[in-house]
Amino acid sequence: MNKVQYPNLGETNPALGLQSLERTSDNRFFVGEGGVGAIGATGDGKVEFVGFEEHTLALVKSAMGYPAYYPVDALGEERPLKAVLMDLDGTTVHSESFWIWIIERSIGSLLGKKSFQLEEEDIPYVSGHSVSEHLQYCIEKYCPDKLLETARAHYFKHTHREMQLILEGKGREGAFEPSPGIKPFLEELKAMGLKIGLVTSGLYEKAYPEILDAFRTLGMGDPADFYDAIITAGHALRKGQSGTLGELSPKPHPWLYAETFRVGLGMDYHERNAVIGIEDSGAGVVSIRLAGMQAWGIGGGNIEQSGTKGLCSEFSNDFEGLLKRIRLRAEA
After folding, report:
1. Domain segments of the chain as ranges
2. Left if phi > 0, otherwise alpha if psi is -120 to 50, otherwise beta: which for 55?
3. CA angle, 19 as apex, 16 and 25 as ends, to 5°?
4. Which of 12, 50, 164, 281 has the fewest CB within 10 Å, making it most exposed?
5. What Gene3D superfamilies does the record point to (predicted)?
6. What is the model's pTM?
């Protein structure tokens, strides 16, 4: 067993649930050279950690050709809880199957095959990341002769049509189902005086109808009035229109959670130990952790499948379990 630790992250590859590597995928670091003691990858291969004697680096890979290295900061001593940041898809709202269906329709349009379906092994690569990364993965596997730009055009055509139908009450039945137990969970967080932020790698045009539809179902009014901050991946780039940053900086990069915490809630970096992030995806867990905060996992997503459960400070299969832990922390 590898006995070299990953400072600020954890101990061994097995303890963290990482797959041992001899070198990083970009051939920049090798075990036993340049002070590198250990290298490990998450189960889905999206992130690699490089352990040195006194620090750890995280390599966030990119299907778009723009990988990035980030330092892994220590979590530090827990402080009284001030805020809870939460993912949208799969955590607050169950909609992964809907967006995977949209991906299938988009690739089906590329192939001229309406009946196209993804394979089970594809699921970790078409959830939790950016639209472009989802599509790029599918193109490389199923139609390498096709262009990403063409796939994106199909994706947004299908998305715009379905979003409009949903807003008119005519859309795919059960597309955006509120997660079980989410209403009492959110209401108790509010009653405790905690700030609440909603964080998603989804583009605004698809993310906001999701949470709006879910809040209507729950009878909770306008989500913009409920949340203290909502951060999405912005607006898609289309011909003749301007887009916003979001396709190259989604989870597992730290920026969405960092922006919600630092800009949306107006909290300082030294307060990060008073904040937790709740996620159901491996990409989200890494994003929270690289933003310097505790990642709390909830079941139902791909955390275990992606091999990132070892990066979670807490894990529960439901909101009731997470709420019990939050109460305990509030009483400490």
Report:
1. 13-71, 83-94+178-331, 96-167
2. beta
3. 125
4. 164
5. HAD superfamily/HAD-like (3.40.50.1000), Putative phosphatase, domain 2 (1.10.150.240)
6. 0.85
